[in-house]
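User: Just a sanity check before I run the rest of the batch. Below are the structure tokens for the first item. I only need the designed sequence back.
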């Protein structure tokens, strides 16, 4: 992939996250200050390589799971999400430290993630899975389709035993679309952080949302929240 194609893919992903509509060549041509024909040629290359797709005839393009994976990998390599606590994570730390017992602290952290990311928040508390923010998730335009909603529900029903079985072992784990072991066709991304807690060395906190989301901010927020919980608890 050329540098311009990588920047074009990044722009398509970030614009699509913002407007929830396919991104067209006219807008991209203005942003890149080149002709629409040049943009269409570059988009055709990205489409042939499987990074974007055209959902409707004469529509713009949207990212594929492969496109999101490329983008997320680039983010993980190029942005610092660990050593620069943000105002939001400082607020979470304050809220968590004032919550008292560990279970309440974990729930408080999840509730904060729900408010800040507008996704569904999850965390393991012992042998139970705490979930908050259903209205955020099922209010997204992607999940108006009942089939997609059922796929998401199936994923949530089986998420806790899967986490116990798979035990993702990184401070930040990102599963995009069909990378999810359950609900593969639901069009969701699971972003979770593993941390040590009084309940387990393999406790998890994170968010579940549509593949169309702001990975740049959400990934850093989830990782920092996991680190905050580990430090406080």
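Assistant: Here's the designed sequence for the first item:
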């Amino acid at each position: 992939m050329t540098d311009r194609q990588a920047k074009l893919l990044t722009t398509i992903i970030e614009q699509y996250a913002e407007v929830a509509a396919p991104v067209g060549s006219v807008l991209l041509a203005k942003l890149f200050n080149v002709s629409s024909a040049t943009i269409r040629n570059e988009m055709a290359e990205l489409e042939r390589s499987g990074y974007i797709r055209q959902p409707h005839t004469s529509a713009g393009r949207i990212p594929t799971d492969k496109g999101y994976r490329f983008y997320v990998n680039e983010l993980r390599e190029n942005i610092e999400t660990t050593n620069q606590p943000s105002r939001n994570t400082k607020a979470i730390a304050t809220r968590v430290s004032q919550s008292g017992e560990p279970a309440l602290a974990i729930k408080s952290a999840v509730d904060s993630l729900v408010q800040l990311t507008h996704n569904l928040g999850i965390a393991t508390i012992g042998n139970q899975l705490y979930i908050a923010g259903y209205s955020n998730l099922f209010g997204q335009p992607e999940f108006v389709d009942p089939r997609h909603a059922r796929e998401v529900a199936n994923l949530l029903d089986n998420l806790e035993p899967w986490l116990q079985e798979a035990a993702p072992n990184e401070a930040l784990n990102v599963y995009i679309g069909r990378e999810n072991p359950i609900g593969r066709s639901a069009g969701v991304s699971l972003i979770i952080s593993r941390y040590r807690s009084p309940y387990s060395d393999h406790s998890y906190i994170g968010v579940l949302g549509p593949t169309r989301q702001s990975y740049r901010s959400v990934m850093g927020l989830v990782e920092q929240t996991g680190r905050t919980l580990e430090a406080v608890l």
